[in-house]
Amino acid sequence: EFVEQLRRSKAKRLFPKLTKKDAKDRYSRSVSRWFTVYAKKCSVHHGTKGKKIFHSFRDCVTHWCETNNAPEKQAARLVGHTWKNITYGRYSRDTAPSTMLRDVVSKIDYGIDFAYLKESKYVLKVPQRP
């Protein structure tokens, strides 16, 4: 529904409010900086060993994909890496988001029950389709 709303408004990006600071900046810098401040507020940073940064998510997902035999092409594209293999890298299109969700993302499980988050005031309530 969010994507359809963006299409109707003719938005050019998935997160149109996310901005760059200057021409050399990347969109990811704002998100990374926000996460660093947020993580410190949550006491996630504990010295240099075990320090968690925004890219720790990428490491965690990549490790899960490897240990659970996710197809390497999908794992690479999921974490934002290019796929260099000539067959799928050059002659294949990106994997459809619905395929990524079905084959990889929906299977990621760290054994943590996040059910309580469904009631959080910070979770966007989206009406369920019949």
Question: What would you note in describing this structure?
Answer:
By secondary structure, the protein is mostly helical. It is 41% helix and 0% strand. The model has no long low-confidence stretch (mean pLDDT 80). It has helices spanning 2-8, 27-41, 56-67, 72-78, 86-90, 97-103. It has six helices and no strands.
Protein traits:
130 residues, single chain, globular, mainly alpha
| Helix-strand string | HHHHHH
Annotation field: number of helices: 6
Mean pLDDT, rounded to whole units?
A: 80
Low-confidence regions:
none
How far apart are the termini?
A: 14 Å
Layout: helices, strands, pairs:
Elements: H1 2-8, H2 27-41, H3 56-67, H4 72-78, H5 86-90, H6 97-103
Q: How would you summarize what this structure contains?
A:
This protein is an all-alpha fold and 130 residues long. The protein is built from six helices and no strands.
